[in-house]
Amino acid sequence: MTNPNDTAIEALKTAVALTPENKALVQQLIMLLVDLLRYEEAETAARVALQSHPGSVGLQLMLSDVYFRQGKDSHAMAIVETLAAGKNADPRAMVMHARLMQRAGDIRGAVSTYRDAIDCDEDVADPVLESLLGIDDFSEADANSEPEPAEWMDAEMEEPFNVPIERPDHGFELVGGMEIVKDEIRVKIIYPLQHADMYAAYGKKVGGGILLYGPPGCGKTFLARATAGEVKSTFISVGISDVLGMWLGTSEKNLHELFQQARRTKPCVLFFDEVDALGASRSDMKRSAGRHLINQFLSELDGVDTDNDGVLCLAATNTPWHLDTAFRRPGRFDRVIFVPPPDEQARQQILDLQLVGKPTDSIDTRKIAAKTADYSGADLKAIVDRAVETKLHEAVKVGMPKPLVTKDLLTAAKQVRPSTREWFSTARNHALYANEGGIYDEILEYLKIKR
Fold first, then answer.
1. Which residue has the higher pLDDT, 388 or 27?
2. What per-residue confidence (pLDDT) applies to 235?
3. pLDDT at residue 384 in the model
4. Is residue 214 part of a domain?
5. 188 and 124 inside one domain
6. Contact 343, 420 (CB under 8 A)
7. Residue 269 sits in the same domain as residue 304
8. In a domain, 427, yes or no
9. Which residue has the higher pLDDT, 385 or 34?
């Protein structure tokens, strides 16, 4: 017996093939496929339709929804990031953006984005998302209200702000590859400290900032910590949670205290991970609180009321195109360095470092490095970890440990996919179409794309 749903779908597919310009018809087909949980067919239909209607926001949103339902969050994010940004942001895209952030664990960002969407259009409200975000009783008055005086008093009575200060005991000797990046850091940070008198003669202060960007897992954080170890300085790693506070003004105060702590312990490497979360483009913001935090950040970098001599600022981001352009002005993060995936020689060095202290038997890391193009440092660590887990499983069965061999790592490499390719698919578009001043030329060079 013929399934009526199959009959309806085939009829719609035939109608769409005869009249591809009929956007409403293809949207009906996609919605029916989604209702029947036939997501792969819905994805194909949406992608084909977008070839005929490349500027259709509705079709783009439908495709992002299909991606979301399949768990292809990075694909969905690539679509909604553009539609949800700027003055003409689409509220529906903003809600999808909030869903993606919620699923990624960025609850604060999801709440802010969702509230901005509701500000633009109350009809896009999503009760399920509100429940997941814990804002079932959300109202605009609550969103914009300031804390009561008593709450401010409580905030003032909290313990003094403080973050852990480290003194890394390793330098660049444990950083595999990245020689060009190391040289940039030496010129900007290390040499000014080691030859302070010479730099002073030319009127150059010890300080300044470097922005590291590139695919996740390629060693930006590790490199920043190694920089502090190289110059025997203190190291303060700043995460989003170290800065953002609940009440108005608290985030700016926290940021000021972080810089003050760095100034008290200089020379100090002050490292901001995921700096785009703290310094997102102000042109994309609808709330003033975010702008105030960015202005405070810029003021601290400039050292308007204080002396930043000896405070070395490093920041890392996977999405430099989201960072406010003001951060790249001279005296701030004026040196922008691309941290690519490790090349073959660097991959061999990373594997050698990862295998130190583990039982091995004549492992040919050069052979493994040759077969792991585009793998990040984190991917290579995952390969070693997976090989170790497999070996441990075998050892438990036979009751005798055996050393790792080349074959173990080659087998593990086939099970770990390079995570950088997804990042490059997004970065490529920014490098081609939003490359002001040639800031992303290194991405094009790495991808061997000629403009």
1. 388
2. 92
3. 94
4. yes
5. no
6. no
7. yes
8. no
9. 385
Answer yes or no: are the C-beta atoms of 73 and 104 closer than 8 Å: yes
Spatial separation of the C-alpha atoms in residues 348 and 370, rounded to whole Å? 8
Provide the CATH number for the domain around residue 87: 1.25.40.10
Say whether both 397 and 365 belong to one domain. Answer: yes
- Reading phi first (left if > 0) and then psi (alpha if -120 to 50, else beta), residue 436 is in beta
Mean pLDDT of 71-98: 85
The residues, ordered by sequence, that sit 6+ positions from 257 with a Cβ below 8 Å of its Cβ are 161
Alpha carbon 248 to its chain's center: 26
Cα–Cα distance measured from residue 406 to residue 324, given in angstroms and rounded to the nearest whole number: 46
Q: What pLDDT score was predicted for residue 266?
A: 83
Burial of 44 (0-12, 13-18, 19+ CB in 10 A): middle
Residues 55, 311: Cα–Cα separation, whole Å: 47
Domain tally, the chain? 3
Residue 35's pLDDT band, with cuts at 50, 70 and 90, is confident
**Residue 368: which domain range?**
344-417
The per-residue DSSP string of 97-141 comes to HHHHHHHHT-HHHHHHHHHHHHHH-GGG--HHHHHHHT-TT--HH
Q: What DSSP string runs through 52-84?
A: HSTT-HHHHHHHHHHHHHHT-HHHHHHHHHHHT
CATH code at position 306: 3.40.50.300
Helix (H, G, I), strand (E, B) or coil at 270: strand
pTM of the full structure: 0.61
